[in-house]
Every structure is written in C-alpha cells, then in structure tokens.
C-alpha cells in the first residue's frame, strides 16, 4: 500500500533508530554538578603520531556515510585514521527513523525518510552488502490512489505499489506530457549522477560542479518554469507533478526549484528496508569501526595548538548522569545543519559560516483506527470508493501568496493507509494511517476524515480507550529546506580540515544525496590528510639524507 512519502520517489534526506548504547570517548570527563568546575583541557606530550583523529558530528545519512567511506578511502591510501562520531540523539540515522506502533517492536513504522529508488546506488549497494532485505510492497487489489484539490479528485488510479505512476495508464488524459516528463527527468538526473565519479568527484565546491554539469540552469528556475520551458502541459504539472512535490517536500511548483522537481519524478524501483531504512546507516557506522557516542551533544568547537578542541555534554544511558567532555581532533566533519546544532564556534575559526536557510516544518502523524476514510469529507457520493491513499494538489487559481504556507485548500499534503495492524489489547484488526501536514492535527480534522467523533484530548488515546482511534503518534520534523531557486550552494570545506555536508540539502535533499555528500567529504578528508603526511615526510627524509636510510613514515 501507499505509505505517504513512500508513494513517490527519492525521499529526503529525512534520520534512523538504533538500540545502541552510549559509548564514551577518550578525553576529559567530569560529572556535572553545582560544585564541579568546567574541566580544563590537559594536553598530551607533543609526540608525533601519524594517526589522524577525525570527529564526525551527526550520525544521520551524511555522517554515517562519511565514517563508512572514510575508513575505506583511508585504508586504501595508507592514511591511519581514528574516527569518532558524536550524535545528540539516542539513535543513529537522523531523519530516517522508525517508531513502534502500539509499542510493539514487530510493528515498526517509518517516521522519516521512507523509500529510496533504483538510481540510489549508495543506499542500494550498502543495503545489499549488509544483507538487509527490501520490504515487499503491501499493495492490496482494491487499493486506490487519489489526487485531491480540496474539492474534487482530479486523478485516481488503482494502486500498483510504490511505483504508482504508470505512463501507459495516464496517456489518455495528459497526452505526451508524461513521456516528456520521463525523458526530461532522465536527462536531468543523468547529469547529476556524474557527481559520483571522476572527474567531477570529489568536489569542494558544489556550486562549481553544478555549473560544470549545467545544473545551475535547472536550479535557477522554479519547477513550474522548468516544466513550461520543456513543453510539459500545465494540467499534468499541476495534477500529477505538483502532487509529488507536495508529498515529498511540502512545496508547490511555483516555489520548488527545477532539479528537486525532477528528483520527485525519479521513482523507478522504489524500495524500503524491512524493519527500517535506518539500518543502512547503522550498518555503515559498524563497518567504519568508528567510536560512536550517542546522547552526546557538541556544545563548542575551538582551536588549540593547531587542533580542534571539541567540548560535549553527554548523558549516561544507564544512570542518567551528565558529564562534560573535551578532546582534540585533527579534522572535523559537521554532518548536520549548523543552524540547528546549537554549537558555539570560536570566532574566526571558519573561513565562511553557512547561511541560515528556512526549513519546512513538517508534522507527521501516525494513528490506528477501525474506520476507513469518510467519503463525505471528500465530497464523494454514496457507493463511491474512497481512495486508500490521498495526495493533494491545488486548483490553478489557489496558489498561496505566502510560500511558507503552501498547503492551501486541502489542508494537508497526504493521507495514506499504510497497512492492516492488530491492536494487541483487543486483538482487533485496525487500519494504520500516516498523515503529512504543515500543522498539528486536531480532533475536529480527525473526526471529519473518519466520520466519527474523536476526543479533543488526543494524548488520552490508548489501545484500550475504546475510541475510534486506538493508537496515536505525532512528530514534528525540520524535514528539508524550502528549495527556493538558487545558483550557489554551501561549499564542502568551511576551513582547513573542517568540512560540512548540509550544503547538499538546498541542491537535492534525500537520503541518497546526503550519503553522496558524506562519501565526497570522506575523500576530501583523506586527500587533505595525505597532503599533510607528505609535507611531514619530506623534511624528515631530507634530514635522514642517505639512500640506505628509510624514514619510518615511508611505511605510511
């Protein structure tokens, strides 16, 4: 069945969940109390150590991928590294995470990034390497997809799994527009995919690479403009493509740039991992052999004797006690948006500070009910089949004037029946739903879509409450940026040995693209460390002098 975001394409790059514990790292550590002063950094004796310490801040798609590829690239290049990952949450995966319906670990539900597709080579190859099983589509024979404009369904189609868009079934309504869109998507995404290999990989400047690949001409236009310039009719763009940009990014075609619009139509081979996509990133971290510190918040970064001093506040998962920790690193990778990190960075440390950019506030609501969606809410007559998955679009004259209030008349982005589920208390079969909306849901809205009264106090809903809703779970994400048209993007390197991954999000925000940026940064780190090691080796070899003497550094 449709699964909300799962319906379409490469989903952003939204984090994951792991049962991992907190693993402390080597440094200064004191339990915080009113009588305990902040620890001072104690320097180790200045003895040359060829092993370079790399800190990665964030264990989402980009942080996990950085650790994974850094270990591989460093080993191949003979660069000894020690990798430490700091994650403020109790799980890995960032915005790719699951929750347990009814608290049952056998009923995991994707809360963030839900699917990846055939062209997502990093995710696809990693999942196979780690032996992760792709989940089968849960399509039922009577499933129906509908695209609703707030008054009527402008398009309906029998569900064909995550690949709901079947060109042959819609040619009769939209002419050649679907074929034009497919060709345009393949051409555009094909240019982007050149970033995976030399000569375009690796890249310090994403802006330069976008220019080299002629993708600036795509990101500089809105999706609406890009489609019109390529003779794709307005009706198909509004009915079908805009439904995709709304369910994937909460944005309309008059706002989202052309490249992200094309990404929304790259749906071939959509899949998800059984038990949660976060397992891909958990597998990457384990394969990297990194020290992973969960429940560990980086509070500040400063320079000390040519190295980076990272200060963290950590909470012991068993005792709940907080501690302050400090440690020195040669290289830092900030693998999360700086504006949400809360990290205090020493003045002058960065050559450039990333701009604050607006992110979409997305409300994801999961609930279970014995009820099906009510036909009267959707203005359907008696006997009409109500779609099991509802995407939304806008009527041509309903484009909101405020770009940060894109929902319009429908009032939500999507409602999807994910699957049937058993209430563990009553043993009744329930319907499991997911709703994407720009605001929290209230009992009035839920009563309307289910056709029965719902208690105003939604937090009182339990499996045994006897209400029409037997399980309820709301969550709010800063899910992805508003993908405004733009021609420049944040660089990968913010200073010497200081890298940043979130510049990719304004270009393309998906799990795969963030993993690509992690792989890119990993190669940049190894290249820079290689330069440092070569610079150290040369004077040592000059001092040793004779041909029959060999520097210990040659073994590096």
UniProtKB/TrEMBL annotation:
- What GO terms in the biological process aspect are recorded for it? prenylated protein catabolic process; prenylcysteine catabolic process
Q: Which positions carry the signal peptide feature in this UniProt record?
A: 1-21
Lyase keyword on record: yes
Which keywords does the record carry? Answer: FAD, Flavoprotein, Glycoprotein, Lyase, Oxidoreductase, Signal
Q: Where are the transmembrane segments?
A: none
Task: Please provide, alphabetically and separated by semicolons, the GO molecular function terms listed in this UniProt record.
Answer: lyase activity; prenylcysteine oxidase activity
What family does this chain come from, according to its entry? Answer: Belongs to the prenylcysteine oxidase family.
**Identification of the protein by name:** Farnesylcysteine lyase
Q: From what organism does this protein derive?
A: Lachnellula suecica
